[in-house]
Amino acid sequence: MDKPIAKTSGKAAISINIGIGEKDRAAIAQGLSRLLADNYTLYLTTHNFHWNVTGPMFNTLHQMFMLQYTELWAAVDPVAERIRALGHAAPGSYAQFSQLASVPDAPASPPKALEMVRILVQGHEAVARTARELFPLADKANDQPTADLLTQRLTVHEQTAWMLRSLLEE
Ligand SMILES: [Fe+2]
Question: Which residue, 10, 80, 119, 157, shows the most beta carbons closer than 10 Å to its own?
Fold first, then answer.
């Protein structure tokens, strides 16, 4: 027998029956879209700082930022694909990201090295807050894959914020 067809934005799609209601899937996808936008924005800022850092800490920070932007780049894919698995479209344009992100765009001209570190600490803290804000909803909706993804991202962002923060302390 044919599966029932649900219409989403003009396209015929097979209906989703994974045990998470439509409303919860939409709300979780919206929260994950904000996380994706924050993650992507912080990725780009970190790569920008890898290119533009100067000063006596050049080598350390150039290398450290490379490890961080590589991790952030790899992290956007599972977030976007979780949005798809919940039945929604993943945002993927600068216009959408600038609308959704709580992390500000990188400054137009490169700041000094320690100011870059300060900006990245604030960025990782902001992404952690976005992920944490979504957790109760994922938990309530019994959405274990999203809760697991959020837990993994919280671990990375809070650890990276600590490492960067340590560079600013005596
Ligand atoms: Fe490079």
Answer: 157
Residue 79 sits at φ, ψ, to 5 deg, of -70, -50
**pLDDT (average), residues 23-33:** 98
CATH number at residue 99: 1.20.1260.10
Can you give the pLDDT at residue 5? 47
Ligand 1: centre distance to CA 34 (Å): 27
DSSP letters spanning 48-75: HHHHH--STTHHHHHHHHHHHHHHHHHH
- Is residue 45 in some structural domain? yes
Q: How far is the CA of 91 from the centre of ligand 1 (A)?
A: 27
User: Total domain count for the chain?
Assistant: 1
> pTM above the 0.90 mark?
yes
